[in-house]
Structures are given as structure tokens and as C-alpha cells.
Specification:
Chain lengths: 311, 307
């Protein structure tokens, strides 16, 4: 009699165990479904943009100005504007971001003052991008009198990606082993010599990755530059950065008004006429392609540097 | 001096000048670090300074309790509630997508996925967060809304539901990645203890890892909320630009961010009441995200100290 109840108990436990194992398997399937459907959305999004924009994805689209006629409209002013803004952003965000990261990681003493800077960096990463736009409108456009210019847009996006650059650079600096720094100090190098000659070269991969990720974020940012007052209908290019006279470089373009890829796309997508939606899709496909490519490069750079360094 | 060095030592003055140079460089690096502090101060200053004249014109009580927001009309009303409601509704819809999906992905990646799969899938998921928001706006307006209109007859072309769903997709990677970090911070011996009592991976995940990482997961949700609250382009494109005090996601309504975009698109003169109103709206948005960010920051701190 006791053998029977024991058998019953054991088969009860077996059932319980197999039920739990089934639950385990079901969760694996659920996890895979959720994960791959999220990724499928990304693929679908890109495919949808390319197929909707296919009739416009040609060379004329890249070399034409915006137009009232959807078929003749193009993104020339937009991509030139985006390129120039990115140049300003990179030239400001890279040095400031890397320097701030070096200060926090290599120089800063552990005290309340450093803590304030760190909290600020973390906090800035969570500020909505449109708030940067309001900051730029009040500060750059009206107080500094930069106007609705490429310089104002570039500076705004530089502030926006600063936390990304700082965090990525700090991570890269932290990955350099202490022993490298100590060896350099032992030879009498000053702090800056240690940083410049040893720590920075080793962390270049991580810094570049952070910079590219930051720029890929900046390139698609729409809200802050709308707030500054980007125009969506521009049928001219900013002044050329090259001049025929000495010193052959001109910075007049910094003060020019501008449009940019995401602004152009926003303008087209918010028009009721569906003919413009194809333009929006084509611009979106190019914009998304650029973003994905930059992220791909960043992943590749990180991978390359990780492989090359053997401490 | 018993031995002479094979190379002559540099003169003392050169060492001194190297140290002097070091101090100059340190000051420059510090100045770069201070840019972050000045940015924060400048944001607060600009928002407050530009919205002060607004509050001369509109009483704070009206601003917080009036149920109409029509600052550009002849008979202007300045109640922020419709915009706040729009913002909250889209945020809730977004969380309805991002919290379940992000949590399931985080549990799967942290507790179930083989190492190789995790290392491959994580950067791919991050790409979801890298897509320009204006592209998501296109997606919401021209793909998701027509699809939803087949399911829900009478759904307007601009609606908060579709915008919220798309924002949800956008913030999945933030929720997933911060939650996963929190789960991975739960020490291995706690899992092993659970496995040793015969628990399956799923039981371990739900009963040991998730409770252990709870404050970190909560921080992930809160960071997700603060992203959704500040999201601009998706709502400006797909949710409509008419302020509308409603809690029904199938209606069209403007959010705080959408209002700022709408005003910026027009050519408002500097110093007009419309110009000042976007700074007042921005101030409210900033306060909302600040509350969420501080809560999230405090929670991540706490979960770091737990072990």
C-alpha cells in the first residue's frame, strides 16, 4: 500500500517537474519571438522606406533642391546642410567631450565638486532633445546673436551628444590597465605625458566608437533644429567653405540659414499630398541608411581595436 | 654621485616647465568638464528667464488648472493640462509596449541566451534606439495608423495610440539594456543556490533574479518613461497638433513637445506671448523628466549598493 502512494507521489513530482520544464521551454520561445519581432520591425521599417521611396531614389533626387512639385523635389540643400552641421558638431563635441572625460577619469580628485560634474553629465543624457532646442533658441539664437544658422545648429547638437562622447571616452580610458600608467609614471612622465602618450593611443578605438555613435544620433535629431528655426524650403546652398583667395578657407557658411535631412523629411511627411510621402520615404531611407552605416562602422571599430590589443 | 648617467639629465628648468604645462592643461581639461555644468545651468536659466514674462501675463493657478490651451488664438487660454494629458497618454501606451517586451528580452538575454547570441543580438537591438525619430514618425503615421484603422473602425488619421505604440518600440532597447544590466549584477551564487534546490531557469529568473534586481529594473522603466515623455517627432507627426483634454488614446491630441514643434514651425516674433509659451511648456516638460530622472538615478544607486 505504501509502495502505491510512493509511486503516486513520484509520478506527481515527475508531472510537476515536466510542467516546469515545459514552462521553461515556453519562455525561451516567447523570449525569442519578442526579440526577433523587435528586430523584424527594424528590417521591415527599412524595407518599407526603400520600397515606398524607390521611385525617387535616384541621382536627381540627390542633386535637386526642394520644390513644390513632388517629382522634381530633391534633397541637395538638406544633405549639404546636414554635412556642414555635422562638421561643426564634430569639431566642438570631440575636443570638449574627450577633454571632459580625461579630466573626470585621469585628473579629478574624488570630492563633491567632481561629483557635481558627474551628476550633470548623467543628467544631461536624460534631458529631452527638444529642451536643447529651447536652450539654443534662447541662448545661441538670441543672446549670442548667432541667428538661425548652421553654427547655432551645430553647437546645439554638439551639446546634445556631449554626454554620449564623455561616457564612451571614460569607458575607453577606464579599460586601459593601471600598470601602463604606473610604468609611465615610473619613468618620470608627468600626468599629461602619461595620458597623451600612453592612455589616449590605447583608448582611441573606444573614443572613436563613442564619437561615431554620437554623430549618428545627431544626424537624425530633428526637434532641436526645428526649434532653432531650420527652414524647410531652401533652394540655395550655404556659401562655399573654399575660397579662391588666401587663406582659401572661408567660414561665412557658419552664419548661413540651412535645412537638414530630418527637417526635409518631416516637412514632406506632414504634407497631405501623398506624392510627397514617397519623397519622405526616400529621404528616410537615405537617413536611416546613413545612421545604420555609422553604427555598423562603430561596432566594427570597437571589434577591431578589441582584437588588436593584448595587454 | 658614484655613477654618471649615460644620458645627461634634463635641466631642472625643463622639468619645471613640463609641470607648468601640465597645470595649464589640467585647467583646460577642467574647463571642458565644466561645460556640462554650464549647460545645465544655462538650460535652467533660459527656461526660467524666458518664461517669467509668460507668468506675468498668466497666473500660475490658471496655468495649472485651466482646461484649455489656445495660446495662439485671439481669445487665448493658457491651461497646460491638455498638453500634460496628451503627454501622459502617449507615455502610458508606449510603456504598455516597452515594459513587457523590454523585460522579456532582458530576462531572456540575461538568464537564457547563449553567450554568442547575446553578444550578437545586443548591438542589433541598440539599433532600434538609433533610428532617427522622424523615421519612426513616418512609420507611425503611414504604416501603423492605416493598419490600426482596419482593426479599429473610425480611428482618426492622427491618434495617440499609434504614436504611443511606436514610441514603445523605440524605447524597448533602453528598457531591455538597463534591466539586463541590473539582472546580470545579481551575483551568480544566488542563481546557483536556486538551481541547487531544483528550480528551473525560469523559476530562478522570476523568483530570484528579478526580485534581486528589482530596483534596477524599476530604474529602467523610469528611464523609459522619461524618454517617452520627451519624445517629440513621433507625436508631432502622428498624434496630431490640436490640444485636447482626453484620456482616450484613440483620439488625437497634442503633447507638450508637439506644441513646441508646432509653434517653432511658424514664425513667431521674439518676445511674443506665443514665443514665451513654448518656454513655459518646456519648463513643465523639464520638471517632469527631472522628477523621473532623479527617481531613476536614486534607484540605480540603491541597486548598486545592494550587493
Amino acid at each position: 500500500m505504501s509502495a502505491v502512494t510512493a509511486d503516486a507521489a513520484i509520478s506527481g513530482i515527475r508531472r510537476d517537474v515536466s510542467r516546469r520544464k515545459l514552462l521553461d521551454q515556453l519562455f525561451v520561445i516567447l523570449g525569442l519571438i519578442v526579440m526577433f519581432s523587435s528586430l523584424a520591425i527594424l528590417v521591415f521599417l527599412f524595407a518599407d522606406l526603400v520600397s515606398d521611396g524607390a521611385p525617387r531614389l535616384n541621382w536627381d533626387f540627390v542633386t535637386s533642391y526642394a520644390s513644390r512639385n513632388a517629382e522634381r523635389a530633391g534633397i541637395l540643400a538638406a544633405w549639404v546642410g546636414t554635412t556642414l552641421i555635422m562638421i561643426v558638431t564634430a569639431f566642438v563635441a570631440m575636443p570638449v567631450g574627450v577633454a571632459a572625460a580625461i579630466y573626470l577619469e585621469e585628473y579629478a580628485p574624488k570630492n563633491w565638486f567632481t561629483a557635481i560634474i558627474e551628476i550633470n553629465v548623467t543628467n544631461l543624457a536624460g534631458v529631452p532633445s527638444i529642451i536643447y532646442g529651447l536652450l539654443a533658441l534662447g541662448l545661441f539664437v538670441y543672446q549670442f546673436n548667432l541667428g538661425q544658422s548652421i553654427a547655432a545648429a551645430g553647437l546645439t547638437l554638439a551639446l546634445l551628444i556631449l554626454p554620449i562622447v564623455v561616457v564612451a571616452t571614460r569607458e575607453a580610458l577606464r579599460a586601459v590597465p593601471r600598470a601602463i600608467r604606473e610604468a609611465a609614471y615610473a619613468l618620470g612622465a608627468t600626468r599629461w605625458e602619461v595620458t597623451k602618450d600612453h592612455v589616449l593611443p590605447y583608448s582611441m578605438g573606444g573614443i572613436l566608437t563613442g564619437m561615431i555613435i554620437g554623430l549618428s544620433r545627431a544626424i537624425g535629431e530633428t526637434a532641436p533644429i526645428i526649434t532653432i528655426g531650420a527652414l524647410s524650403f531652401i533652394a540655395f546652398l550655404p556659401q562655399s567653405p573654399f575660397s579662391s583667395e588666401f587663406p582659401f578657407l572661408s567660414f561665412a557658411w557658419l552664419r548661413d540659414s540651412f535645412t537638414a535631412m530630418p527637417i526635409q523629411m518631416f516637412n514632406w511627411v506632414s504634407r497631405p499630398d501623398p506624392a510627397f510621402h514617397a519623397n519622405a520615404a526616400a529621404a528616410g531611407a537615405i537617413l536611416l541608411g546613413m545612421t545604420l552605416m555609422m553604427n555598423g562602422i562603430a561596432i566594427y571599430v570597437r571589434f577591431r581595436y578589441r582584437k588588436k590589443i593584448n595587454w | 654621485m658614484a655613477t654618471t648617467p649615460s644620458t645627461p639629465l634634463p635641466p631642472r628648468s625643463s622639468i619645471g616647465s613640463r609641470h607648468a604645462r601640465d597645470r595649464v592643461i589640467e585647467a583646460l581639461l577642467l574647463a571642458a568638464g565644466l561645460v556640462a555644468v554650464f549647460t545645465t545651468l544655462a538650460i535652467v536659466f533660459v527656461l526660467v528667464y524666458e518664461s517669467l514674462p509668460f507668468f506675468d501675463h498668466v497666473s500660475v493657478a490658471d496655468f495649472l488648472t485651466d482646461t484649455m490651451w489656445t495660446p495662439l488664438f485671439a481669445e487665448a487660454r493658457f491651461g497646460i493640462l491638455p498638453l500634460v494629458a496628451g503627454t501622459l497618454v502617449t507615455t502610458f501606451v508606449a510603456l504598455g509596449v516597452a515594459i513587457p517586451a523590454g523585460t522579456i528580452i532582458a530576462i531572456y538575454l540575461s538568464e537564457f541566451a547563449p553567450f554568442k547570441l547575446r553578444e550578437t543580438i545586443k548591438p542589433c537591438l541598440e539599433l532600434l534606439g538609433a533610428v532617427p525619430t522622424v523615421v519612426y514618425g513616418y512609420f507611425a503615421l503611414l504604416v501603423v495608423t492605416p493598419f490600426l484603422q482596419q482593426l479599429i473602425p473610425g480611428l482618426p488619421g492622427f491618434n495617440m495610440l499609434s504614436a504611443g505604440l511606436v514610441i514603445g518600440i523605440m524605447i524597448i532597447p533602453y528598457v531591455a539594456s538597463v534591466s539586463e544590466d541590473a539582472m546580470r549584477a545579481v551575483p551568480g551564487y544566488m542563481r546557483e543556490g536556486s538551481y541547487a534546490t531544483g528550480a528551473t531557469r525560469f523559476q530562478t529568473a522570476v523568483r530570484v533574479v528579478v526580485p534581486g534586481a528589482l530596483s534596477g529594473i524599476a530604474a529602467a522603466y523610469i528611464l523609459g518613461i522619461s524618454r517617452a515623455v520627451g519624445e517629440t517627432m513621433v507625436v508631432a507627426i502622428a498624434a496630431g497638433l490640436q490640444p485636447n483634454l482626453t484620456w482616450n488614446p484613440t483620439e488625437s491630441a497634442a503633447t507638450i513637445t508637439a506644441f513646441i514643434v508646432q509653434v517653432s514651425l511658424g514664425d513667431l516674433p521674439h518676445g511674443s506671448i506665443g514665443y514665451q509659451s513654448i518656454f513655459a511648456a518646456g519648463l513643465v516638460l523639464m520638471l517632469m523628466t527631472l522628477v523621473f530622472n532623479i527617481a531613476g538615478f536614486a534607484l540605480t544607486r540603491r541597486f548598486r549598493e545592494a550587493y
